[in-house]
């Protein structure tokens, strides 16, 4: 069964440097080594396989980032053509990665919201739109990383992850629930310039932020999925914010400590452990989702433009 999936089972690595900082044992779920470069392949692979089985003839994505790359990867593996609508702000590196997966690119709109609106408009019969975060098929696929962690012999008593649109959060909570771990704290980390979950929690309603100003572009959803906000209220979710500077510093430290390059979006979660966050003090086994990021470059990590 498992070898029919598009994602791979990822290593779970104990981090000595991070364990020293956090007190408890820190376990790294290495989603950065998924063939598409991020955890997104778990959920998107699940969605694409489900739709392929139902006869989809074309996949459509609206993401110039890791979601678009994952859909392009899934389509190539399944032999189904892919169109990715990307906003004008998409870096050439991302376009290169999507093109490398043989997907067709359409450039439309100034932001993801506009690319998304355009994508929904050009949907044709037989085409399936794969949303980057707001889809139960994605959450079910992401949840598999918790099953895998437990199977690999670790029962976490805290989880640290990044939040963009909240698809990863929904998936991890689904996984925790079905493994009897729904009570453990989940540290939901965003950068200050992409703090849409934090805004909804603060205002106690499902709300959008006006703009995204963070270098962690993969966290740049102005509004999280409704389910992510509902989960944040229902479960033991702790919202935490870090600066772009902290996220980048964490990427650098992580490259040195573990010889792996990740996007600032992933650096955000790592920053909470490098800090380290007080709530982690009580945890014996801390699971950190190393969500990855295909778009990262050496230059971005070494220099880091527009630091706030
Ligand atoms: C998509 C993504 C996130 C955020 O995931 P959401 O499901 O949108 O919350 C974080 N890090 C990386 C590397 C991503 O690709």
Walkthrough of the structure:
This protein is of the alpha/beta class. The chain has two domains: 3-39 and 137-303, Rossmann fold (3-Layer(aba) Sandwich); 40-134, Rossmann fold (3-Layer(aba) Sandwich). 42% of the residues lie in helices and 15% in strands. It is built from twelve helices and ten strands. The protein has a six-stranded mixed β-sheet with strand order 1-2-10-7-8-9, sandwiched between helices. β4, α4 (92-100) and β5 form a beta-alpha-beta unit. It is globular and about 55 Å long. The N and C termini lie far apart (46 Å). The mean pLDDT is 95. Bound molecules: pyridoxal-5'-phosphate (PLP). The site of pyridoxal-5'-phosphate has 22 residues, from α7 and α11.
List the helices and strands and how they pair.
Layout: E1 12-15, H1 16-22, E2 25-29, H2 40-53, E3 58-61, H3 66-78, E4 82-86, H4 92-100, E5 104-107, H5 112-122, E6 127-129, H6 136-151, E7 158-162, H7 167-178, E8 186-191, H8 196-203, H9 226-234, E9 237-242, H10 244-258, H11 264-274, E10 285-289, H12 298-302
Parallel strand pairs: 2-10, 3-4, 3-6, 4-5, 7-8, 7-10, 8-9
Antiparallel strand pairs: 1-2
Helix pairs in contact: 2-3, 2-6, 3-4, 6-7, 10-11
In summary, what is this structure?
With 308 residues, the protein is of the alpha/beta class.
């Amino acid at each position: 069964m498992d070898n029919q999936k598009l994602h791979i089972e990822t290593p779970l690595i104990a981090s000595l440097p991070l364990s020293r900082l956090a007190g408890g044992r820190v376990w790294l779920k290495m989603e950065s080594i998924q063939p598409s470069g991020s955890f997104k392949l778990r959920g998107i692979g699940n969605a694409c396989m489900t739709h392929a089985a139902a006869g989809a003839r074309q996949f459509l994505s609206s993401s110039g980032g890791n979601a678009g790359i994952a859909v392009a990867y899934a389509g190539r593996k399944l032999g189904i053509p892919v169109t990715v609508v990307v906003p004008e702000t998409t870096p050439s590196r991302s376009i290169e990665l999507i093109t490398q997966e043989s997907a067709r690119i359409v450039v439309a709109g100034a932001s993801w919201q506009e690319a998304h609106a355009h994508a929904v408009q050009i949907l044709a019969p037989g085409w399936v739109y794969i949303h980057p975060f707001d889809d139960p098929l994605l959450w079910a696929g992401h949840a598999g990383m918790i099953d895998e962690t437990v199977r690999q012999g670790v029962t976490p008593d805290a989880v640290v992850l990044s939040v963009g649109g909240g698809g990863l959060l929904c998936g991890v909570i689904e996984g925790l629930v079905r493994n009897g771990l729904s009570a453990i704290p989940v540290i939901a980390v965003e950068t200050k310039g992409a703090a849409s979950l934090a805004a909804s929690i603060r205002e106690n309603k499902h709300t959008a932020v006006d703009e995204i100003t963070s270098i962690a572009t993969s966290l740049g959803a102005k509004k999280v999925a409704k389910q992510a906000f509902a989960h944040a209220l229902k479960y033991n979710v702790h919202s935490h914010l870090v600066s772009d500077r902290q996220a980048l510093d964490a990427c650098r430290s992580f490259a040195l400590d573990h010889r792996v390059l990740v996007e600032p979006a992933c650096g955000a979660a790592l920053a909470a452990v490098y800090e380290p966050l007080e709530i982690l003090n009580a945890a014996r086994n801390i699971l950190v989702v190393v969500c990855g990021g295909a778009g990262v470059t050496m230059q971005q990590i070494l220099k880091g433009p527009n630091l706030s």
